[in-house]
Amino acid sequence: MEKKVVNTSFGxxxxxxxxxxxxxxxxxxxxxxxxxxxxxxxxxxxxxxxMIYHAKPENPPALLFEExxxxxxxxxxxSGMTNSAGRLAVTLGFDKPNGAMDVVQSYxxxxxxxxxxxxxxxxxxxxxxxxDRDQEVDLYKFPVxxxxxxxxxxxxxxxDLVIMRDPDDDWINLGTYRxxxxxxxxxxxxxxxxxxxxxxxxxxxAQGKPCPVMVSVGHDPLLFLSSGNEVAYGTGEFAHAGGHxxxxxxxxxxxxxxxxxxxxxxxxxxxxIVQDDMRNEGPFGEWTGYYASxxxxxxxxxxxxxxxxxSPILTMARPGRPPADYTFSKCVVKSAMIWDQVEKAGLPGVxxxxxxxxxxxxxxxxxxxxxxxxxxxxQALMLAAGSHAGNYLGRWVVVVDExxxxxxxxxxxxxxxxxxxxxxxxxxxxxxxxGALDPMKKPGENINSRALxxxxxxxxxxxxxxxxxxxxPELLEKTLDKWGHLLDD
Length: 489
Ligand SMILES: Cc1cc2nc3c(=O)[nH]c(=O)nc-3n(C[C@H](O)[C@H](O)[C@H](O)COP(=O)(O)O)c2cc1C
Ligand SMILES: [Mn+2]
Hints:
By secondary structure, the chain is an alpha+beta fold. It folds into two domains: 4-316, Roll (Pnp Oxidase, Chain A); 345-464, UbiD C-terminal domain-like, CATH 3.40.1670. Helix content is 26%, strand content 27%. It is built from 13 helices and 23 strands. The protein has helices at 20-29, 44-55, 85-92, 100-112, 196-206, 221-227, 237-245, 327-344, 376-386, 388-391, 409-418, 422-425, 473-483, and strands at 4-8, 11-15, 33-37, 62-66, 76-79, 120-121, 130-133, 155-157, 161-165, 172-175, 178-183, 186-190, 211-216, 250-253, 260-262, 267-281, 296-308, 313-316, 350-355, 364-369, 396-401, 426-433, 447-454. Strands 7, 8, 9, 10, 11, 12, 13, 16 and 17 form a nine-stranded antiparallel beta sheet that branches. Helix 4 (100-112) crosses helix 8 (327-344) and helix 6 (221-227) crosses helix 7 (237-245). The mean pLDDT is 96. The protein binds flavin mononucleotide and manganese (II) ion. Manganese (II) ion (MN) binds next to strand 10.
């Protein structure tokens, strides 16, 4: 791989990082890795992650669980990979940020002129260090966590990459979809209607064929960022993550399916989804903060191969009542993607986008604009709600003026309280894309409604709108100069 030296404000790196292990060294270097020994896979790991991510929503470390009881000493689990502004910046190769909006800006700037890098096929790599075939497959050899008390099983795939090939157009999709262990060589894979993996599975099934699939459950977090967020249909997420990396990811073809796996992944399972075996899947504590999808029958994957590195690291993302161990990073990437998509759809004057953590990066999205014409605010609402990144399982979209920081919930709420006339300024969209995880939906219902909230000053009399009762920047500066010391104690 080409090595180039890049100076970032973190220091000098040989970038990009080659794999999860090199990346772990870097985040340890910025003081954001916490190693914890002796935590049990059975509920403890999930509860410890919840405890830390709830207690320290600002800048929590990544958690590396080591010496997990009942497992080989060198098998590890990693939680909260990208869940801070600093770790996101290291992962994506940005300068040291001043908070979340800085990372949103950098990500969105990169997307303006983004070049995809298709994966490069290689013959060998560390993922081939160990291969279990057919009858040798035993998924219980890994310290897979049982995450929440009411879960229907041990979820091996949470911070995962589900890898599939479109049988018609031959592109490779990655999606992050939950994977539960049913028995030593069978897993359940839940993909919500409309997700690319599910559309692909339906194509194989329509042809009467099983659907080949691979799941990486330990890998470079850069891949997770592309896999777990909405990249356009037909654009391969390997190529998308390679675009961020500035060079291709190396992939190796699997023995069973020929699908590509990251050459530097930690653990990859390979097999096929079959039509003639259905088993109970769920419930699972989810990102909305509820056990929202009930137990139902779903298709399963028959696992034929397991590839893993020596001393493997399983990557975990534990959804649950927010904030969870991945929600911050989801919100950053989501905000930047919505910003990029509304701009590419022609919206001018966007000052910021923030997808709030309380909504899991989907349910409460705010866009701020500098209004330039009547209807501009409504256009912003419709595009933010309709963009591919902002569409699935949304609820509230709010547009605010440029003086409101969309990530500051207090100020957004103040704008809603003072610049919005509900009868005029709230529109309801019906029959929008939702899914089983929506706690407001009955089983089987996959659509919901949206509120589009215009919390901007009314454009037609914006200049006559009451002035904000706060000191002018000049008076504020003078006051700070003379009296700022009063803030010191
Ligand atoms: C940690 C995490 C877990 C997720 N779990 C699921 C899941 O179980 N099923 C699902 O349909 N989407 C899930 N998603 C959302 C999808 O990964 C996301 O919508 C992504 O865009 C799917 O890829 P696709 O656009 O190629 O379908 C999850 C996302 C994250 C970040
Ligand atoms: Mn996709």
